Amino acid sequence: MVDLTKIKDSVIGGEVDDVVEMVRKAVDEGQSVKRILAEGLISGMGIVGDKYEKGDFFLPEMVIAATAMKAGLKVLSPMLKPGDVESAGTVVLGTAKGDIHDIGKSIVGTMLEGAGFMVTDIGVDAGPDKFVETAKENNADLIGISALLTTTMVGMEDVIKAVKEAGLKARVMIGGASVTQEFADKVGADGYAPDAPSAVGKAKELVKS
Ligand code: B1M
């Protein structure tokens, strides 16, 4: 059996091929996809963040680790998505203006798809106009904004204002490492979720209300 801590260590070390190989093997062995994601990939990325904060890692190490994490996520993604199920709602998802972090956002998107939502991912560095236009085109029930930087999370308020000004029916959910419930209340978001599984629960709650 593949030891999931080895996947975590390989994410930290940025060993792309090892991560892909071990994730594939763990899946073939029948290990839980959600555990491979949480205990292998996400947990590894968390340690990378701690190391960067302490000054033990610099930007290049963070980029390489993120590449390994994304390669592992690519293997898992098809297994986190459903087959033919009735749509739970339509979501437009993106990372806030000025922010290029997309790993957490992509996990949230994949898990929403896994729960039956139709997700249009508008990528990173997305401003209010992009969110509003895409929500209009897709008649979205929900807009999801992710931000990891304290400098970019403030831009979420501009998206919320633009959505209200455009008179859209879509509710707005926000999340990302630097975002809190308190911040969500302050900027008038309809919902906040601290992680991908709770984002699914919150999305279901918001589209029903
Ligand atoms: Co950057 N970075 N980074 N980074 N990076 C952080 C966020 C940081 C906390 C590191 C640190 O200092 N400890 C710090 C931010 C400090 C702050 O503002 N408070 C930081 C910094 C400073 C920077 C740069 C400015 C560095 C520089 O250039 N000097 C730069 C900014 C570039 C930019 O955006 N303009 C930068 C760049 C990068 C890389 C490109 C190297 C890379 C990103 C690669 C990529 O995404 N494609 C990177 C990475 C990898 C990180 C850390 C290490 C890991 C982020 C990650 O992927 N985590 C991060 C440290 C950390 O977070 N501890 C850090 C794993 C992921 C699964 O978690 O994204 O939190 P997360 O998502 C979770 C939840 O937050 C939640 O669910 C997800 C899954 O459970 N969630 C949502 C996320 N979005 C949600 C949306 C929802 C609901 C829940 O609803 C819509």
Quickly describe the structure.
The protein has about 210 residues and is α/β, with parallel strands linked by helices. The chain has helices at about 5-10, 15-30, 35-55, 60-80, 105-115, 130-140, 150-155, 155-165, 180-185, 195-209; strands spanning about 90-95, 115-120, 140-145, 170-175, 190.
Task: Calculate the mean pLDDT score and round it.
Answer: 93
Structural class: alpha/beta
Q: How large is the share of residues in beta strands?
A: 5-15%
Bound chemical compounds = CO-5-methoxybenzimidazolylcobamide
Find the count of extended strands (DSSP E, 2+ residues).
5
Query: Quaternary arrangement of the chains shown?
Result: single chain
Briefly note the CATH topology name of the largest domain.
Rossmann fold
Question: Strand-and-helix sequence, N→C?
Answer: HHHHEHEHEHHEHEH
Largest sheet geometry? 5 strands, parallel
- The CATH homologous superfamily of the largest domain: Cobalamin-binding domain
Number of helices: 10
Low-confidence stretches: none
Helix content: 55-70%
Question: Over the alpha carbons, how many angstroms does the gyration radius reach?
Answer: 17 Å
Distance between the termini: 44 Å
CATH class of the largest domain: Alpha Beta
Which term fits the overall shape?
globular
Overall CATH architecture of the largest domain? 3-Layer(aba) Sandwich
